TrEMBL record, chain B:
This is ABC transporter ATP-binding protein. It comes from Brytella acorum. Signal peptide: none annotated. Belongs to the ABC transporter superfamily. GO terms for molecular function: ATP binding; ATP hydrolysis activity. CDD domains: ABC_Iron-Siderophores_B12_Hemin. Residues 5-240 form the ABC transporter domain. Keywords: ATP-binding, Nucleotide-binding, Translocase, Transport. Part of the ABC transporter complex HmuTUV involved in hemin import. Responsible for energy coupling to the transport system. PANTHER family: HEMIN IMPORT ATP-BINDING PROTEIN HMUV. Pfam families: ABC_tran (PF00005).
């Protein structure tokens, strides 16, 4: 827990205009140089807070989805949240919307996809897991096709690069304005998932077992999917598509403290926050320009996943 | 412990096929009742209906005299524990953690109940000889060990009744005997036990009552020596059987040996 503030202060100091931890603390307290204060308060703090919140939200969402779908290899995109959000953002870019418009478009697209997946599941007559997975599969395919179509008709001079850059995921356009509406919602969704740890334990059992232990499975499953989707859609609207965090962090947390969600979820959220802050710091400072955050998380995430799978987790889960 | 679970004119239709046809059945407190039936007779469906996991197509289930649909799920879970046939867990819960989930129906009353939960879990682990495995991940256990974990979780639930779907399935012979003897002891202590089985012999010496489910209806229901009889068993399994009584035990063997065991038709 103590690591998070340390990482935050170090991240606030890192950048083209480097600040020592002491300078960062002074600037945060409001008595540093005007330059340091401007950098910390206006350039770096909103971005780093956004990175921490995004990492926390994505990890909580991933941990919850893995419990609900009883599958350690799923992430929130199973229900089409990411492809829906990508569609919303691409459509907003095509319609000439500004940053805020793209964010709202992505958020709505993500929720629309989840609603679509649930509706398809209902049409298929299955309220169970299989219906949801199939619904997600179909909606994912539809929105992926729709994004391709939007890319095809986008203006190749400016719209197409904007769509592609957005899909890579980045925090470069974040400011206090975006945080103002996304942060409270993200904190509520993540907090609710943390409070519902015990329910997640039961939902990771088979339906009959969970019911015979007193849980109203269908209602709770929908509620948790709703919260996980909300968290994931918010992160996408903040930063575009940031891969691997939602899949990797729950595994890492389980490897360290085991399966019970009361232990695993808080650590998962903390690791997610620290991981994305570090990844975004790399995105900012590794090159003179900016590397898309999504590329960094994919690169590190995929590599780290090998080591995590080599740990206890995979062999057990494969059997 | 006072307990009563009753099915009245219970019907269940699935996919246009009538699985259960007007079943009347009463499970009384402190009884150990065995349920026999061929594959696909509807035993598991019947158990799931009794637990409120499925809704009957028509008819009624009364738990302690009150319609099951008027009970909240958590209240049912504090009255009846369920041991399903299959147990598969994807996340790496240890044995102790899995058994602790049996405490879920019991409301948390401040921090003190954590101690009560731990005691109940320890008792259950000890009763099923699972203490040496307590910190092992469930996924690493054999099928028989997992079955014992499921039963331990049901015991940790501390309910007056236990419903078990083929609990000896997959257990080695020693554990089959130990588990059935444990169920008998639980019944002697006042718990109500309902289990399905494919082994009439194991019910003969231990059950207070045996019911036979055939083609969606109760074919026979009564004392083990009357039900686990060559005439009923031959009719149930559609194989001519002869019984051998030996002390308190009763065994069956086939009266005829055909080439492949199936009728020529």
């Amino acid at each position: 827990m103590a690591m998070l503030p340390v990482v935050l202060v170090m991240a606030l100091g890192a950048g083209r205009y480097a600040l020592s931890p002491l300078e960062v603390l002074h600037a945060l307290a409001g008595d540093g140089s005007p330059m340091a204060q401007a950098i910390v308060w206006h350039a770096r703090l909103p971005r780093i807070l956004a990175a921490a919140l995004l990492g926390a939200g994505l990890s909580a969402s991933g941990g919850a989805c893995q419990a609900v779908f009883r599958n350690p290899l799923v992430a929130p995109d199973l229900l089409g949240v990411l492809s829906g959000a990508a569609f919303g953002a691409a459509l907003s870019i095509l319609l000439g919307a500004g940053v805020a418009g793209i964010q709202v478009g992505a958020f709505c697209g993500g929720l629309l996809a989840m609603g679509g997946a649930l509706a398809v599941a209902r049409q298929l007559g299955g309220r169970g897991l299989l219906g949801l997975v199939l619904g997600g599969l179909i909606v994912n395919a539809l929105f992926t096709a729709a994004v391709s179509m939007l890319k095809y008709i986008a203006d190749p001079q400016d719209q197409l690069p904007a769509i592609i850059y957005w899909l890579m995921g980045s925090l470069s356009q974040i400011g206090w304005g975006t945080l103002g509406w996304t942060a409270p919602l993200l904190i509520v969704a993540t907090g609710a998932l943390l409070v519902l740890c015990h329910t997640l334990d039961l939902l990771s059992l088979h339906d009959d077992e969970a019911r015979s232990l007193g849980l109203s499975v269908t209602a709770w499953r929908l509620a948790i999917i709703g919260l996980a989707t909300l968290a994931a859609a918010l992160t996408v609207s903040i930063a575009g598509i940031i891969g691997w965090v939602a899949l990797l962090m729950p595994h890492l947390a389980r490897l360290l403290v085991g399966a019970p969600h009361a232990r695993m979820m808080p650590l998962c959220v903390l690791l997610g926050a620290i991981g994305v802050v570090l990844a975004d710091s790399c995105a900012r400072i590794l090159t003179p320009g900016e590397i898309p955050l999504g590329m960094i998380t994919e690169l590190f995430g995929a590599t780290a996943f090998i080591f995590v799978l080599r740990g206890v987790g995979w062999r057990r889960e494969a059997e | 412990m006072k307990f009563s679970l009753e099915a009245r004119d219970l019907n269940f239709v699935r996919g246009g096929r009538s699985v259960l046809k007007g079943i009347d059945f009463h499970l009384r407190g402190g009884e150990m009742v065995g349920l026999l039936g061929i594959n696909g007779a509807g035993k598991s469906t019947f158990l799931r209906l009794l637990l409120g996991l499925l809704r009957p197509s028509s008819g009624q289930i009364l738990l302690d005299g009150v319609d099951l649909q008027d009970w909240r799920r958590r209240e049912i879970a504090s009255r009846i524990a369920y041991v399903p046939q299959a147990f598969d867990v994807e996340l790496p819960f240890t044995v102790r953690e899995m058994v602790t989930l049996g405490r879920a129906p019991h409301p948390r009353e401040g921090r003190f109940s954590a101690g009560a939960d731990r005691d109940a879990v320890d008792r259950a682990l000890t009763r099923l000889a699972l203490q040496p495995l307590a910190d092992r991940p469930c996924a690493e256990l054999s099928g028989g060990e997992r079955q014992r974990v499921m039963l331990a979780r049901a015991l940790a639930q501390e309910t007056p009744a236990l419903v078990l779907d083929e609990p000896t399935n997959g257990l080695d012979y020693g554990h089959q005997i130990r588990l059935l003897d444990l169920l008998r002891r639980l019944a002697d202590e006042g718990r109500t036990i309902l289990l399905t089985s494919h082994h009439p012999e194991e019910l003969y010496t231990r059950a207070d009552r045996v019911a036979v489910l055939k083609e969606g209806d109760i074919l026979a229901d009564g004392r083990p020596d009357a039900i686990i009889h060559e005439s009923v068993m031959s009719a149930l399994y559609a194989v001519p059987l002869a019984q051998i009584d030996h002390g308190h035990h009763r065994f069956f063997h086939s009266r005829e040996t055909s080439s492949d065991g199936y009728p020529d038709a």
